[in-house]
Design a protein that fits this description.
heterodimer; A: alpha+beta; OB fold (Dihydrolipoamide Acetyltransferase, E2P); 4 helices; 8 strands; B: alpha+beta; 6-stranded antiparallel sheet; 4-stranded antiparallel sheet
């Protein structure tokens, strides 16, 4: 086998594998990526039931209700709109009313967001980046919150890793 | 005083690094041995000063000197000593200091043990190391100085993030950094080779042990981090395809490819240009990992830093080194002579295939990790790319790779015989088919994929064993002869067999855990029973306890199997008063390679507690596999050929001349 043939074989092989990978990536991109929305965006865009997305916002104080067998319901709000969320399972350690939350799941036919994953990635000075950005964009950013986050020498806000998956 | 000494030592280290970046290069241009040798002494002195600086920060943390911002923010006087020490790198500034310390350590090692390198190559390598070091010293001194003081010192610190108050923090980041930063050596060697415009098999022999060391540490570091996340985060996951995890996986994939291509270069003097490119890419991915983790561009379960100036600075470093490295490569690579012809079906061909799959898999991880960031910058849409994406892309690419793994060592260099290799793998293939059939029957045809995947893993393990059997002539010759041959086999052969078997072992663990894992979530009151995977668990009661810097609620479970008392498990929920945050301490019960896993949720109003119990079959194999891989790497590292004979200057000179 000459140098040229060898090179062609190798190039052909690599192109084949790259094509395979590209195919896999495009296929996976179509099916498995999840968009992030806030309650306001959900209200404006009329998201179809069954379409998976990530919902971010603040847990509306006073709405957290615990049912039997670890079923919980609460409302996620972003200042503009509210969306009821139903979830079954353990909530993360730092899940609290009035704090930022990100939930993943889909709307059901009655307009309730059925979450199968709830993430709370924050401590007392930090809220999930997606939520903070979305709130800022809508002008509902709480000033005291920002002051706290940038306050004094505490520049590094450390998010406590917490996740709950059903 | 200690803080000022630490700060000053760091500035001196920067000054030394600047000298080391320039003088040796000048020496190499002028062919002045004395100037080139400056690299050696400055590298050692730099190590000394960085070590001093690091020791100073450790000292500050140990003595709880809250007049230093870094200590105030991340420590607490009541914290146990071990966490005071590990807390040094449990924050942004400290972990960057650890990063440069390890960089200086590797530079110092090259200086100390690189006596048999050609003097100009050593000068260039150390100079490139110093460029990297200077950039990161500047970064620390300008944006992340750990030695800053507070004007009026508080009495008590803010404590370390409770999740980090764990022995995992003592091991995981240093290991990971030894891996990340270790790849800087192969990068420096690659850049040095490009500057000098020559490269040969001897070069690969020098680079391989360094790459191997970095790879071993990175393997262990990733495995350790995964196990840490598994038991600390309290929901039993061990790999989340989180960007930060991907950031460590990408250099690992590229580094694994580099190990294999350097082998081809060392043995057959082929794939030079590709090996150089991989060296550059591997370290670039390490830098990218540092950027992703340290700049806070990610919303991630590991997010530490949130200061944008730092992000821009690291991005700049990233662009300079990756851009510079690739530009130099584009400019000089054509000057490197090609060598070593081989047929597509050959050991080289198999290693090329390995490289193709590993780098492609690495590319898919890269896309999955950076695409959301890119999309957000360009369109503003926020998306999350999670496990489904990676399962659909990464996994299919690994299947053909795993099938090819046992064939590689069976093929001869230069021109191999696929049919002969397949015949020698007959036993492995048969055992894989038997495993599939047995599992299929045993699980009653539940999942199709799982038995197939385990069959693949068995094939890889049996393939590695067949390779050893072939080489020692076991089953064909008398035992004594086989044993003698086994002793005579090069350690690297044993190493690759262990490492390949480790991949199979890890795969078995992954498949078993994901397929047959059982979960039980419920609210339980004292004396309630739960049944998981045949085990009976009884909640005996809840007690409150006081730790050094936390309060905890401990639940006690009695575990019985068929009425036989097995063990008592005590998961707990800790509340850290200083930060007002809590952590879940899962309880683990190991049965063989399987584990029972209990973590607690919150108390409900009426005295019941939410409990999550998992049974994870063969889960420990997930981490035992990487340990086996690292052990294989260690064996390979101890191979004579990497210590004796290889870097003889005389031979090197011949090699270098031949390459010109």
């Amino acid at each position: 086998m000459t140098r040229k043939q060898r090179r062609l074989t190798i190039i052909g092989g690599s192109l084949g594998i790259l094509a395979l990978a590209a195919g896999l990536v495009l296929n996976a991109m179509r099916d498995s990526i999840v968009f992030f929305s806030t309650p306001t965006m959900v209200a404006e865009k009329h998201v179809l039931p069954g379409r998976r997305f990530r919902l971010g916002g603040l847990v509306q104080p006073g709405t957290l209700k615990r049912g039997d067998n670890l079923a919980v319901t609460f409302e996620v709000a972003d200042g503009g709109a509210k969306l009821p969320v139903a979830y079954t399972g353990l909530l993360p350690d730092l899940f609290r009313e009035g704090q930022g939350v990100v939930a993943e799941g889909a709307l059901d036919a009655t307009g309730v967001f059925r979450a199968d994953t709830v993430l709370a990635k924050h401590d007392e000075t930090y809220m999930p980046k997606d939520v903070a950005d979305a709130l800022k964009k809508q002008g509902h950013w709480k000033d005291d919150y920002g002051a706290k986050a940038n306050g004094s020498a505490a520049q590094t806000a450390q998010g406590t890793p917490q996740g709950v998956k059903q | 005083m200690i803080a000022e000494i630490g700060h000053y030592a760091l500035v001196l280290a920067l000054a030394l690094a600047l000298i080391q970046s320039t003088v040796p290069i000048l020496g190499a241009r002028l062919r002045d041995g004395a100037l080139m040798n400056v690299a050696r002494s400055t590298a050692l002195a730099q190590l000394l000063f960085v070590a001093l600086s690091f020791a100073a920060l450790v000292m500050l943390h140990v003595t709880s000197d809250f007049s230093v911002v870094n200590v105030f923010e991340n420590s607490h006087s009541l914290k146990p000593l071990i966490y005071k020490i590990t807390g040094v790198w449990g924050n942004h500034e400290g972990s960057m200091l650890l990063w440069v310390s390890i960089l200086a350590l590797f530079g110092g090692l090259v200086a100390a043990f690189g006596n048999n390198l050609p003097i100009s190559l050593r000068a260039h390598v150390l100079a490139v190391q110093a460029w990297i070091a200077s950039a990161f010293y500047l970064f620390i001194l300008m944006t992340s100085n750990p030695f800053l003081r507070i004007a009026d010192p508080p009495i008590e610190g803010r404590d370390l993030n409770p999740v980090l108050q764990d022995i995992g923090l003592a091991v995981h980041p240093p290991m990971l950094y030894l891996g990340y930063v270790g790849f800087s050596i192969s990068f420096s060697f690659a850049i040095a080779a490009l500057i000098e415009g020559r490269i040969d098999a001897a070069w690969a022999r020098w680079v391989r042990p360094w790459t191997l060391v970095a790879w071993i540490f990175l393997t262990l570091g990733i495995a350790m981090g995964s196990y840490w996340a598994y038991y600390e985060l309290g929901w039993g996951g061990w790999w989340f395809w989180d960007p930060v995890e991907n950031a460590s996986l990408m250099p690992w994939l590229a580094g694994t490819a580099l190990l294999h291509s350097a082998l081809v270069m060392e043995k057959r003097n082929a794939l030079k240009v590709w090996t150089i490119l991989l060296s550059i890419l591997t370290f670039s991915l390490s830098l990218l990992g540092t950027f992703l983790v340290r700049s806070g561009v990610l919303t991630s379960v590991h997010a530490f830093a949130t200061d944008p100036t730092r992000g821009v600075f690291i991005l700049l470093i990233l662009c300079i080194f990756i851009g510079g490295g690739l530009t130099l490569y584009a400019w000089r690579a054509s000057a490197l002579k090609q060598g070593g012809l081989f047929a597509p079906i050959s050991r080289e061909g198999a290693l090329v295939l390995n490289n193709l799959f590993l780098t492609t898999a690495c590319a898919t991880v890269f896309i999955g990790t950076l695409y959301p960031l890119a999309l957000e910058v360009v369109t503003g849409d926020k998306i999350s790319v999670g496990a489904p994406f990676f399962n659909l892309t990464f996994a299919p690419l690994f299947v053909p790779l795993m099938i090819a793994v046992p064939f590689g060592p069976m093929l001869a260099w230069k021109r191999g015989d696929l049919v002969a290799a397949a015949q020698r793998l007959l036993a492995a293939g048969v055992s894989a088919l038997v495993a599939i059939a047995v599992l299929w029957a045993w699980t009653g045809g539940g999942s199709t994929l799982a038995p197939l995947a385990i069959g693949l893993a068995v094939f890889v393990i049996a393939g590695a064993l067949s390779d050893l059997a072939e080489r020692t002539g076991a089953f064909r010759t008398p035992l004594a002869v086989a044993a003698r041959r086994a002793r005579g086999l090069p350690r690297s052969t044993w190493g690759s067999a262990f490492a390949h078997a480790g991949v199979g072992v890890a795969l078995i663990g992954i498949v078993c855990e994901t397929t047959w894992n059982s979960e039980h979530i419920a609210t339980m009151r004292p004396d309630d029973m739960a049944k998981v995977a045949g085990y009976d668990l009884r909640l005996d009661g809840l007690t409150q306890a006081q730790g050094p810097n936390f309060r905890e609620m401990v639940a006690q479970f009695t575990v019985t199997l068929d009425g036989r008392h097995l063990a008592v498990m005590t998961p707990s929920k800790r509340n850290f008063t200083t930060r007002g945050s809590s952590t879940t301490e899962a309880a683990l019960l190991t049965r063989g390679a399987s584990q029972l896993y209990i973590s607690l949720g919150e108390l409900t109003g009426d005295g019941a507690i939410a409990v999550r119990i998992y049974h994870k079959p063969l889960v420990l194999l997930i981490w035992f596999g990487p340990v086996l891989m690292a052990f294989g790497g260690l064996l390979s590292l101890s191979d004579r050929r990497l210590r004796v004979g290889a870097p003889k200057p005389a031979k090197a000179m011949r090699g270098l001349q031949a390459a010109e």
